[in-house]
Specification:
By secondary structure, this protein is mainly β. It has 1 helix and 7 strands, in the order βββαββββ.
Length: 119
């Protein structure tokens, strides 16, 4: 198999909106994958070579549109919050094929919030 082509990729999203509110959830699964053309299964000591195991993440998001506001400036705003990898799954996302590099970890749990403005 060619490097960095997973055996499977599954993405599933479910979103629900009611008036100005929107909530959603995403499930992402990436299957096992080789990181080199020789398809080594075993990991080297420094982590530069070896097969990456499958991993999954779950993300959540919510938003509230201020479109009902009478204030012209606020009317184009949406408040949002997004949580990535809520289970805080630890996984290897990539490898760098140099002795000084090795394993590249995937994204950890994180929560982002903000204001989106439509002009």
């Amino acid at each position: 198999a060619a490097p960095y082509i997973p055996t499977s990729i599954i993405n599933f999203s479910l979103n629900y909106g009611y008036k100005a509110f929107m909530i959603g959830a995403n499930y992402n699964m990436v299957g096992a994958q080789y990181t080199d053309y020789l398809n080594f299964n075993n990991e080297t000591g420094e982590g530069a070579i070896g097969k990456l195991k499958a991993f999954k993440t779950i993300d959540l998001n919510a938003s509230y549109a201020l479109s009902h506001s009478k204030n012209k400036f606020v009317k184009g705003m949406t408040l949002f919050v997004a949580a990535k990898n809520i289970t805080n799954e630890v996984f290897m996302a990539s490898r760098l094929h140099r002795v000084s590099s090795g394993i590249m970890p995937g994204g950890f749990r994180q929560v982002n919030a903000g204001v989106r403005v439509n002009i």
